[in-house]
Design brief:
Layout lengths: L1 H29 L4 H12 L13 H7 L1 H8 L8 H5 L1 H9 L4 H16 L3 H25 L3 E3 L3 E3 H25 L8 H17 L5 H18 L2
Helix pairs in contact: 1-2, 1-3, 1-6, 2-8, 3-7, 4-7, 7-8, 7-11, 8-9, 8-10, 8-11, 9-10, 10-11
Length: 233
């Protein structure tokens, strides 16, 4: 019975992901938003998937939710040898094309790797994914629209965008950790300092990452910072 429930939940996740891809690909046709906002909407919505993990009875299913989308996002990228796939998955291809070509691929890889190692501790996965989903999305939008104080280390950034990255990461993580404290063996109080550390680490890594590679570095090092601090809490 558990296996059937897991399979149904896994396919519900697939349906959710594909629905978000469809909505984001058409968003600019019914709302006055740019393709960039549509792309960041997709990032944020995919970032909600860690909230489902506690309801799986086996850690293999979160991996199976994420792993196929490594192949899907690669298939619709400019690096794919399968040109026909670009026309078959036009919505996702357009979002990938207008963003950093490797961005969605690295995002899927990040989630898959975190799910592989931390499915039994979904709050660790969330510590990596939520800053990328909400912090980075907010940083990109705020930085482009209101960024005035510019600086450059490895990529052009703004103080306003980096500030939005930190507070977007922190707020989404606090909400996430409150959720996990209710559905899993996790102490919200003990998680406050690790949450601050993960938000700070994600912000620093985002500043230092070359364009597109923050989809890999932010989730990985955000989760690592949380794991180190929570382990010593």
């Amino acid at each position: 019975m558990n296996n059937l429930a897991d399979v149904l939940l896994m396919f519900a996740c697939y349906t959710y992901i594909l629905s978000m891809i469809l909505v984001s690909s058409k968003m600019d046709t019914f709302l006055p938003v740019s393709r960039k906002v549509s792309r960041k909407f997709l990032h944020a919505m995919i970032g909600n998937l860690p909230f489902v993990i506690p309801f799986f009875s086996s850690g293999v299913y979160p991996v199976l939710v994420a792993a196929p989308f490594i192949l899907v996002t690669f298939a619709v990228s400019p690096y794919s040898p399968y040109v026909d796939s670009l026309s078959r998955l036009k919505g996702l291809a357009e979002i990938t094309e207008e963003g950093h070509h490797l961005g969605l691929i690295l995002y899927a890889i990040s989630y898959t790797v975190l799910a592989l190692f931390f499915a039994s501790r979904p709050y660790v996965i969330a510590a990596g994914i939520l800053p990328m989903a909400y912090g980075d999305s907010l940083a990109s939008i705020v930085g482009e629209k209101w960024g005035r104080r510019r600086y450059k280390l490895l990529a052009n950034k703004s103080l306003e965008g980096s500030t939005a990255m930190f507070f977007g990461s922190l707020l989404s993580l606090l909400i996430g950790m409150l959720f996990f404290s209710q559905v899993s063996v996790f102490s919200f109080v003990d998680g406050i300092l690790p949450t601050l550390g993960a938000a700070a680490a994600a912000t620093l890594v985002e500043v230092l990452s070359p364009l597109g590679f923050d989809n890999l570095t932010v989730p990985t090092l955000g989760a690592l910072a949380f794991l180190i601090l929570y382990g010593s809490a």
